[in-house]
Amino acid sequence: MTAVAHEPITPAEGLLATFLSLDTPEGFRAELIEGEIVVTPPPDGDHEDYISLIVRQVIKRSKTDMDFSGNKGLKLRSGGGCPKDHAIPDGTFAPRELRLYRGADPWMPCDGVAMVLEVTSTKPQVDREAKRRCYARGGIPLYLLVDRETTSVTMFSDPEKDDYRQHCARPFGKPLTLPEPFGFDLDTADFL
Asked: Residue 41: how many CA atoms within 13 Å on its side-chain side?
């Protein structure tokens, strides 16, 4: 019998290995957020409608041509001794000229991402708090949160460490300014 020496793995490495080996049912999303594996079911039609309303406006009205992905896995810096956060935003926007998605791995770095979008669903606190911190740590300049429970839309900007230093919230029906590189007011009248 031959003994094989193994490098000891840390709990964080074990968690990351377990996460990366998951085989989730079709339509479900698995994410590793602040050291916790979060699995969400397929979204309902209203969730998808909000995303569609936003994407349509960004593509038509943004001052900078944007690419969009609704499935892009992002690797983000983590807090504490946790492995890197692995999040799949409901929407990821990047300047078209960068072509960030072309040839990207399923889990890509967030460098160059201009804005991420989340629409609350079954676990709204994850979108409101944990994911917000993850995106800020990743240095993503803008985080747009559509909160169906509070019927509001919030733009978080100016990331620093574990959070965004600025935010602007508007109730559904009121316009919300999307700063540069977008440079237009998001019409939320159809959110009602």
From this structure: 5
Instruction: Give the pTM.
Output: 0.93
Nearest to 121 by CA among 20, 17, 36, 51: 51
In sequence order, what are the beta bridge partners of 155? 144, 168
- Asked whether the beta carbons of 123 and 130 are under 8 A apart, the reply is no
Q: Tell whether the torsion through CA atoms of 18, 78, 128 and 169 is positive or negative.
A: negative
Instruction: List all residues 6 or more positions away from 93 whose beta carbon is below 8 Å from its beta carbon.
Output: 58, 66, 67, 68, 113, 114, 115, 116, 117
Polymer length of the chain? 192
Ordered mean pLDDT values, 10 residues apiece, the chain (192 residues): 64 91 94 94 96 98 98 89 90 98 96 98 92 96 98 98 96 98 98 96
Amino acid identity, position 20 = L
Two tokens, residue 188: 């939320």
> How far apart are the C-alpha atoms of 152 and 146, rounded to whole Å?
6
